[in-house]
Amino acid sequence: MKKLKMLFMLVLVGLLAGCVGKTVVDDTPFDAVNLSGKGYTQKVDNFLVLHDASSSMLDDYQGVQKSVRAKNVALNMNETIPALPMQSGLRIIGPEQDSNVVETALIYGMTAYEAAGLEGAVNSIKTAGNTPISQPLTAAIDDLKDVKGPIAVIVISDGINTSEKSPVAAAENLKNAYGDRICIYTILIGDDAEGKKTLEDIANASKCGFATTEDAVATGQGMAGFVENVFLKKAVVKAAPVPAPLQYETITMDLMVEFDFDKNNILPREADKLDEFAAFMNKYPETTAVLEGHTDSRGSDEYNIKLSQKRAESTKKYLVEKINIAPSRLTTEGFGETRPVASNKTDKGRQENRRVVAVISTNVQK
Fold first, then answer.
1. 72, 80, 247, 309: least surrounded by Cβ within 10 Å?
2. 185 lies in the same domain as 310
3. What is the pTM of this model?
């Protein structure tokens, strides 16, 4: 009989032990992403964390106490934030430690951001009391009064509000106090639908922040995305200066070699013209030329075509053999009497028409 009673007592103790609350330690591994040197620049100069330490955070969410989850979010964020020159602070939502009167308190900062300092403040948080979300939002106006530059306010909470004062109105007042300098971001702990809506409305009140959840930032990559969006912005890579466009000018060389009647040999008086023309071609070796032969109107059309071609060929021969211009750079064409430049009724005019002409031009940098 005594053995049966002993067995009954052991079973009863086991059952009672099973009724005790679950372990609230979250041992989910977190691998922080190193965002330093990733092509980012600093987006904010100050941040203030509003951390929910009220009694509703003592409830479990998926087997882990929400207060533990909130601390993990804050610690993981702290581990992911690059070492930036910022002012930082931590204000709790709920009573100050060892106080049942003060329902919010700034327990860290505003001070120069140091990861170790913020970590110590997060680990010191005790959980108890009501959730007056409006109070820390209102108090933040005074917390931030001396800071310069852009501000990020980060609310970590289950969103359960126990105060009659509207947290959304308090967020709007905070926004009005600092205007475009401030954005509010919220991270929901748990899955309370009304709390989720409250935090979304608080973020929307800032017109530049956003609301997210603990689940979304639980991984290293998820938290890195949050930190990037809140604290950082992509560095603007300055394009290499565009060099001024090169300035060019067109230079031209004209050739006009005259011939005696019914002849195609180069006259000595024309040598200087050909030398000058060849010098230009040698100076600008990319140039080519078409040598165009012409005649006056005396003679048949067929004869004059042949004569004009011979004049063009003799000019090319002179340039190639006498001045070493590459033959590939010179082409010839005879036009006969079809393109007069003067009257064929006078000796002077006919002399001007018995010619080989060429025009070459090139663009050179100024």
1. 247
2. no
3. 0.61
- Core vs surface per residue 94-115: b (16+ CB within 10 A) or e: bbbeeeeeebbbbbbbbeebee
Q: Are residues 316 and 194 in the same domain?
A: no
What does the pLDDT look like over 337-364, one tens digit per residue?
999 999 999 999 999 999 999 988 788 7
> What is the average pLDDT across 121-140?
88
Same structural domain, 99 and 223: yes
217 and 284 within one domain: no
Looking at the fold, whether 172 and 281 belong to one and the same domain comes out as no
- Residue whose structure tokens are 């700034």: 106
Nearest to 144 by CA among 50, 231, 48: 48
Q: What is the CA radius of gyration of the chain?
A: 46
The CA–CA distances, whole Å, from 357 to 261, 265, 281, 309, 312 equal: 17, 15, 15, 12, 8
The answer on 90 and 229 residing in a single domain is yes
Q: What is the model's pLDDT at position 9?
A: 39
* 158 falls within a domain: yes
311 phi and psi angles, rounded to 5 deg: -60, -40
Tokens 């993990």, residue located: 72
The answer to whether residue 210 sits within a structural domain is: yes
Q: How far, in Å, CA of 134 to CA of 130, rounded?
A: 12
pLDDT at 6: 40
Chosen domain end from 179, 209, 234: 234
Q: According to DSSP H, which parts of the chain are helical?
A: 2-19, 66-80, 115-123, 134-143, 167-178, 193-205, 220-231, 271-283, 301-323, 347-353
Residue 252, domain CATH: 3.30.1330.60
Task: Choose one of 234, 262, 277: the last residue of a domain.
Answer: 234
**Residue 10: predicted pLDDT:** 37
How would DSSP label each residue in 78-123?
Answer: HHHS-----EEEEEEESPPTT-SS--EEEEEEEEE--HHHHHHHHH
CB distance 211 to 200 below 8 Å: yes
Burial of residue 116, with CB atoms counted within 10 A of its CB: 0-12 exposed, 13-18 middle, 19 or more buried:
exposed
pLDDT in tens, 181-191: 999 999 999 99
Q: Which domain holds residue 89?
A: 31-234
Res 307 pLDDT > 80: yes
